[in-house]
Automatic annotation (TrEMBL):
EC code(s) of this entry: 6.3.3.3
Annotated positions binding ATP: 15-20, 44, 98-101
Matching SUPFAM superfamilies: P-loop containing nucleoside triphosphate hydrolases (SSF52540)
Protein's name in the database: ATP-dependent dethiobiotin synthetase BioD
Family statement drawn from the similarity comment of this UniProt entry: Belongs to the dethiobiotin synthetase family.
Binding-site positions, Mg(2+): 19, 44, 98
Oligomeric form and interacting partners: Homodimer.
Active-site residues, record numbering mapped to chain: 35
Alphabetized GO MF terms: ATP binding; dethiobiotin synthase activity; magnesium ion binding
Broad class of enzyme this protein falls into: ligase
Pathway: Cofactor biosynthesis; biotin biosynthesis; biotin from 7,8-diaminononanoate: step 1/2
Protein species of origin: Fulvivirga sedimenti
One GO CC annotation: cytosol
GO BP annotations, alphabetical order: biotin biosynthetic process
Taxonomic classification: Bacteria, Pseudomonadati, Bacteroidota, Cytophagia, Cytophagales
Length: 201
């Protein structure tokens, strides 16, 4: 029996590199890509298509909201209430699903981004980008994943090599580091290939 590999990519915050890392993971697994909720433009789906040379299947967003904001707010602006029941996982093999912002970003008054992978029992990959303040944001996210008893495949560091930051997060994190992505000067298919060959699973 062939088992598919499906992961939900979340992060310690927005603008953390989830889209870039989703492209790397999708390339590594030859997986489809799906961004269920896009708030604002440009669309992450277009960036993943560009970075992977239009070779992968990209599933259409369930919501493409105009306002570049938290989904609960962007939806409210358009008179929409997002419900967890609105989302149906694409029926496919390997799949990378990208969240919006971080784990606790609200979809509506009750549900959060993390409720999507929990509903699907989909392993989460947490992107920890590196900046002053990211130790706290990473450890809070890790504690919250534990608190929600989430199925977590591992974490990925994104940013300048900072051993002191990475080692304290690794010490306190029960899941493995799957990849370390450094600043890429010209974001291209080639850089995606380079990192895709380094993913540890
Ligand atoms: N390692 C890196 N090297 C160069 N640029 C990067 C790197 N990581 C992220 N970026 C750039 O930083 C910006 C934010 O990254 P990205 O769009 O992937 O964040 P995100 O987590 O997907 O945000 P969102 O929550 O909106 O989906 C983008 O312009 C991206 O190309
Ligand atoms: C618009 C942005 N690029 C993301 N798609 C949504 C980020 C929501 C962040 C909400 C928050 O944590 O304050
Ligand atoms: Mg993104």
């Amino acid at each position: 029996m062939i088992t598919s590999k499906q992961f939900f990519v979340s992060a310690i915050g927005t603008d953390s590199g989830k889209t870039l890392i989703s492209a790397i993971l999708a390339r590594h697994l030859n997986a489809d890509y799906w961004k269920p909720i896009q708030a604002g433009d440009p669309r992450d789906s277009e960036e993943v298509a560009r970075l992977t040379g239009n070779t992968l299947t990209i599933h259409p967003e369930r919501y493409h909201l105009k306002l570049p904001a938290s989904p609960h707010l962007a939806a409210k602006e358009e008179g929409i209430t997002i419900s967890l029941n609105d989302f149906e996982l694409p029926s496919t093999g390997n799949l990378i699903v990208e969240g919006a912002g971080g784990l606790m970003v609200p979809l509506n008054d009750d549900d959060l981004v993390i409720d999507l992978p929990l509903k699907w029992n989909m392993p989460i990959i947490l992107v920890c980008n590196i900046y002053l303040g990211s130790i706290n944001h990473s450890l809070l996210s890790i504690e919250y994943l534990k608190n929600r008893n989430a199925n977590v495949a591992g974490i990925i560091f994104n940013g300048p090599e900072t051993r002191s930051t990475e080692s304290i997060i690794e010490q306190k994190c029960p899941w493995p580091v799957l990849l370390r992505v450094r600043k890429i000067d010209n974001l291209s298919g080639q850089s995606i290939e380079h990192y895709a060959s380094q993913v540890k699973f």
